Amino acid sequence: MKEGNWMLSLGLFLLRLALLILVVVGIFKVGEYAYTYCYSVVSDTAAEEEPGRDVSVSVTSDMSAGKVAKLLERKGLVKSVDVFKIQMKVTGYEDKIQPGKYVLNTSMRPREMLKILAGEETEEDEE
């Protein structure tokens, strides 16, 4: 009888230990994902290294900020729609995007593209 209790206690201990390890690893993975996601929002990094490639983009007056972000991702100008939408909101450019035809480069940082799309800076001003 004592040996059965000892085996049951050992089994329960190992089960609790395994659950604890899973919880700790899960918390670590969630923290790692959150850090990476937040870093990508504030890092303002380009989609490609210089010199990149020029891409023509047409923004219409009926396009929302989300549609603009999807267009830029589809054209290879930004890495993530979600990250770019957050960058637009945080920097205050979400409602400043102007309709028009633009030539953007894949080596531009998101903030540079937002300034151009908002009409604050032209492509020639950068050079």
Automatic annotation (TrEMBL):
Query: Which UniProt keywords are listed?
Result: Cell membrane, Cell wall biogenesis/degradation, Lyase, Membrane, Transmembrane, Transmembrane helix
Q: Which domain of life is it from?
A: Bacteria
GO BP terms, alphabetized:
cell wall organization
Q: Which Gene3D superfamilies does this UniProt record tie to the protein? A: Endolytic murein transglycosylase (3.30.1490.480)
InterPro entries this protein is in?
Answer: MLTG-like
Pfam families in the record, alphabetically?
YceG
Any idea which GO molecular function terms this record carries? lyase activity
**Keyword hit for NADP:** no
> What's the protein name?
Endolytic transglycosylase MltG
The species this protein was found in: Hominiventricola filiformis
